[in-house]
Amino acid sequence: MRLPLALTEALAAEHLFVAGMAAASAETILLLSPDEPGFWDHVTAEPEFADGRPDPLDRWSKRVIGALATAFGGRAIFPSDGPPYPPFFAWATESQQAFPSPVQMLAHPRMGLWTSFRGALALPEQLPLPPASKHPCSGCAAPCTTACPCGALSAKGYDVPACHAFLNTGEGENCLSGGCLVRRSCPPGQSYGRLEAQSAWHMRHFHR
Description:
By secondary structure, this protein is an alpha+beta fold. It has one domain. It is built from nine helices and eight strands. The termini are far apart. It comes from Rhodobacter capsulatus (Rhodopseudomonas capsulata). This is 4Fe-4S ferredoxin-type domain-containing protein. InterPro entries: 4Fe4S_Fe-S-bd.
């Protein structure tokens, strides 16, 4: 599926890419993810990261994706909108570009378990959708199922209190400084180009 060149170029300029597309009534939902390598260096040089105010990444996302929506006649949608919250997980699986992993987190052929969405563009037309990707977990040895040192992430779901308790220990420093070991174990994600500095930033905001 080829998107308008102007939109593709505008996304690339902000280090974003379309990680999936889903039909929603008369609209097409474009799921926007960090385009690595280079996303973190790009976004941390933006004004939101220099003004000392809270939530710089979310504010950057809303400014940039909001401007893209205006420029291309669509709507900007964000995971934080709500309640009720937009169905990003459902859109991702419906796009057949991201899939539930053995630990229930989304796995994407390019991002692996680093799959994340900065937001979405809802364009007011029904665009042809790309063919389904191969499930990235197909044929994988599933190192994610044994990577969590405290068993917080498993096929049963995510035990958030157990995760926080582990991060409070000295053994949790590796996760805090380099990112979740489960996500790091995913083979496709290892070539995605996400920086440890970005993972550490997210972990600091998750574990306060």
